[in-house]
Model the fold of this input.
Amino acid sequence: MRGVGTSRAAISVVNALPLGIGSAIGVEWPARATVHTREGPPRTTILPRAARTPLVRATIRRAMEKFGGRSPCAIRLLVSSTIPSARGLKSSSAVSSSVALAAARAFGQDPSPEEVAGLAAEVGRATGVSATGAFDDALAGLLPGGVVTDNRSDRLLSKFCLEPGLGVAVWFPERRHPPSPDLLARFRRERGLARTAADAVLDGDWTRAMEVNSSLVERVMGYRYGPLHAAVERAGAVASGVSGLGPAFAAVAPTERLPAILRRLPSTGRRRSLRVFTASSRGGNAR
Done:
């Protein structure tokens, strides 16, 4: 049997560390996984070698338990992703979700996005990759538009649509952020500002939420992105902010403005324009 799963990178609207309420928007930067099963002694082969991480191993093991029943079989897992890790673009959630989805389909199952994201969040917490499990990030890579979630209960609170024709310009330097469990206490001290951001996105004002959240994350992490916000706004961005724990910076804008915005971003590090994940692009998750 063979199963294929695709999930995507995402950008933050609200960071879930302070309150457990998170929000994210999926973008078209995919992570893909293919699972082949065959009869034989239980054995798991993961390719390429770089994909043999604790997160991937734990995800395929948990997915086999959940979707594969008790039938012993040999597993061959192929993982493909160019989303940079530990930059704030949800690479761990995207990889874990794609692996879980591929495994489910290899066993003839068709889980909901919420079920796949829940498994990814469970594994993220168990392996120490994420303090909250990042249910919002995982779900944003599987559902079009934006999502708002309660990561304390792995529950979808609401979804929101973006205006047609919007894209995202992202910039990320080479440095990586620390693991989120190491930063939890510092973020929990920012509950007031986090509540403002959460209330804004729950009221439908995701651009305001993104702005407030970025102020919070920049303060905690020590980023100095004020000039970047001003530059991309002048170039036509409708919203901008730190994604995740950074250092990635994302600007949302009409697609025709993205080239001008990319020119305003620092030349050090990497710059990339991306499409927002929409309902018309969901074909990547077809069997």
About this structure: Residues 283-287 have pLDDT under 50 and may be disordered. The longest helix spans residues 91-106. Residues 2-161 form a domain with the Ribosomal Protein S5; domain 2 fold (CATH 3.30.230.10). Strands lie at 2-14, 21-38, 43-47, 74-81, 146-150, 155-160, 166-172, 239-242, 249-254, 270-275.
